[in-house]
Specification:
The structure is a homodimer of 317-residue chains. In chain A, 53% of the residues lie in helices and 13% in strands. Chain A contains 13 helices and seven strands.
């Protein structure tokens, strides 16, 4: 494991791939691994891209990749599909894309699907970002399918979040989840050669007008990704948003938030494991559960009793 | 509060509505309330219905309601919309439906939207079910929009789960989330007057053939809900599934599982609150978070240190 981390820090692609697999599989050594790479993280800039299936996310990312590579930045791409049980690059579309960039050592693409819960996916996505960050990637693109709450959680890890829409009615602004509006730093209207583009752009702008004027107003950028139109504008807008975050001090604030969440999760993870180990040591839970099911007890006072039994409250007060 | 619970148990509709609002708003007295009603729960049969927007869920539920009411059973309906910030019956469609049944004292309809997180919605849905269960409803229908993982979590509370599809391509069996297949006890193909119905039915049956033969094979029922076609068959299938669960002992097993989850959540909720109160009492977390952000520390060993500081590990061993 130590050797794998060393190889990662040296830039070994296979080590990166293996380490992501380890975190994804909830390997026993995961915490140790994350701890080892942590001092080498915090340098990558993370961009999240979310949009409905068919909105052209993959081709947009491919085009954007060319702009980014033209400036000499190295890139990690994490393609998250919450609906897919596959991971590790098994998704067909990503296989094809990987071939395109197979010879470019500065691009690393990885697919992640749901092995377990969505919560788990959100967590392992963040951990994969850590690995690619320590791996030395300048920019990490996290693309996720769909615009539901779960995707919002995944994308929340990003420094800049791009919400991808099309002029098609299904993606109309009215159908946007409430949460999506709040997380968007940039809107991209892809397939902008289709009718309805102007209306969609206008609707979003109207909505942005109604919002309390924050200091950053999201740009709304029409693109035709399969023809590469608007990609340069998108890349410029991305850099502007990054500059804004850096100069306004917001980037530091966002990253503190992220650390806060990471620490919180880790504390709760340790506490939970410990408490359950203790409880199960002293208690035959099944008996209690059957009593509750028969309504002889209730779950609320039973929970207090369990914690009393391991002196959880007493030892603390 | 005590009085509200008494009114609930007497069958007062306004008390039911108020109590659901209390759990939804995370009222301070929530635990006390849930504890008070718990002995009066466990009698209702819970049916979950999930399907994509536009699949005809509402009209299906309305039709089903007539069958259920014809047998003299009282009904609670919880309409969950994870995409809506509204709750308390504010959704237009449900207002209209409520008027239809406004004079029927045995029907209680309630809408719930996301106030906070989806996790919170899943929790408050379960708590609303508890309230309606104690309220004395024989059958509780939980309908939820969409077929994502979050909806799966919400629907998992149900004794019988109905997955609603249409012959339209977007709902094709291939696009079904992996998790949805596993939770379906009954499939309804609504809008079965549209072309493609037979193919959809055949696809689902093929998929069911491939599955390891469990003892219950989900029925696949074509309906045209706006004309009331197939509703009687659906109601019969529902009753068959319930009978199967009851006679096979699976209902008891499912309900034990639910109690286990409830107890687990309650224990973890108490533990978390307590640990954070202690930690925040002794620690200036912000300093630590800034150190972690500067990579002077890592979140993993910091979490252990925090727990050491409140003697969390020591006092337990």
């Amino acid at each position: 494991m130590k050797q794998l981390v060393e190889e990662l820090l040296k830039g070994n692609r296979r080590a990166a791939a293996r380490l992501i697999t380890l975190v994804e599989n909830e390997d026993r050594q995961k915490t140790e691994l994350l701890q080892a790479i942590y001092p080498h993280t915090g340098n990558a800039y993370v961009v999240g891209i979310t949009g409905a299936p068919g909105a052209g996310k993959s081709s947009l990312v491919d085009q954007l990749l060319q702009e980014i590579r033209a400036e000499g930045l190295s890139v990690g791409i994490i393609a998250v599909d919450p609906t897919s049980p596959f991971s590790g690059g098994a998704i067909l579309g990503d296989r094809i894309r990987m071939q395109d960039h197979a010879l470019d050592q500065e691009v690393f693409i990885r697919s992640m699907g749901t092995r377990g819960s969505l919560g788990g996916l959100s967590r392992s996505t963040r951990e994969a970002i850590q690995v690619l960050d320590a791996f030395g990637k300048d920019l990490i693109l996290v693309e996720t399918v769909g615009v539901g709450q779960s995707e919002v959680d995944i994308v929340r890890t990003a420094d800049t979040t791009i919400v991808l829409l099309t002029p098609a009615s299904g993606d109309s602004v009215q159908t946007l989840k409430a949460g999506i509006m709040e997380i968007a730093d940039l809107f991209v209207i892809n397939k902008a050669d289709l009718p309805g583009t102007e209306r969609t752009v206008a609707e979003i702008n109207m909505m942005l007008d109604m919002k309390n004027s924050a200091s950053w107003r999201p740009a709304v950028i029409p693109t035709v990704s399969i023809r590469g139109e608007g990609i340069e504008e998108l890349w410029t807008a991305l850099k502007e948003h990054r500059l804004y975050l850096e100069t306004s001090g917001q980037l530091a604030e966002v990253r503190l938030q992220r650390v806060r969440r990471e620490l919180t999760e880790q504390v709760e993870y340790l506490v939970k494991n410990r408490v359950w180990a203790e409880v199960k040591d002293k208690f035959v839970l099944e008996e209690l559960i059957e009593k509750i099911a028969r309504r002889e007890k209730d779950p609320y006072s039973s929970a207090c009793e369990l914690l009393d039994s391991i002196n959880f409250f007493e030892s603390k007060s």
